[in-house]
């Protein structure tokens, strides 16, 4: 099968990646956090740097500071903690819906890697007061083929808001 318009990735693989991201969103929205963590490679870097507003040409993303900078171990601990009675930021748990769009797939540096950029919209509501959060941004991933499965080897999350109105980031992006 031919690759799609200069991406170096064939159509069957692109469809597989789309299905992968739909499944990932389903796991998170269904609160299946332990299964979600299994989608990550052991050496994963999971980061969300801070966005600021500056005059050009200064960069608007500060990689040295972040909302979080996780490893597989810390993601595992965060997922397990959500099942306890001490996860106060998520008690009661949020109701979430993730929309993953604009999936752009490119060949990676090796035959087993892909570079994928996705846009996301996270709708999150808690309690019964009608309040909700919208968190929007882009995820920059490196996926690695391991046997028949894809693993997320790196994820960098760029949140569009520099000042977020949400009270906490107790959910995964």
TrEMBL record:
What Pfam families does the entry give?
Answer: Ring_hydroxyl_B
Any one Gene Ontology molecular-function term assigned to this protein's record: 3-phenylpropionate dioxygenase activity
What keywords are assigned to this protein? Dioxygenase, Oxidoreductase
Q: Which InterPro entries match?
A: NTF2-like_dom_sf, Rng_hydr_dOase-bsu
What EC number(s) does this enzyme carry?
Answer: 1.14.12.19
Q: Give the source's domain of life in one word.
A: Bacteria
Q: Fetch the NCBIfam families from UniProt.
A: PRK10069.1
Q: Which family does it belong to?
A: Belongs to the bacterial ring-hydroxylating dioxygenase beta subunit family.
**Name of the protein:** 3-phenylpropionate/cinnamic acid dioxygenase subunit beta
């Amino acid at each position: 099968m031919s690759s799609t318009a200069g991406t170096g990735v064939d159509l069957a693989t692109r469809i597989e990646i789309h299905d992968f991201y739909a499944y990932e969103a389903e796991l998170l929205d269904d609160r299946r956090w332990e299964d979600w963590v299994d989608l990550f490679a052991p050496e994963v870097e999971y980061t969300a740097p801070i966005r600021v507003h500056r005059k050009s040409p200064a960069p608007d993303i500060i990689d040295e500071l972040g909302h979080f900078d996780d490893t597989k171990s810390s993601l595992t601990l965060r997922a397990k903690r959500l099942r306890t009675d001490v996860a106060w930021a998520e008690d009661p748990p949020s109701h979430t819906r993730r929309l993953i769009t604009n999936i752009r797939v490119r060949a990676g540096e090796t035959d087993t890697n892909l570079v994928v950029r996705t846009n996301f919209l996270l709708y999150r509501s808690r309690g019964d007061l009608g309040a909700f959060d919208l968190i929007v941004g882009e995820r920059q991933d490196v996926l690695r083929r391991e046997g028949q499965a894809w693993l997320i080897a790196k994820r960098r999350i760029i949140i569009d808001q520099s000042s977020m109105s949400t009270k906490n980031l107790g959910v995964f992006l």
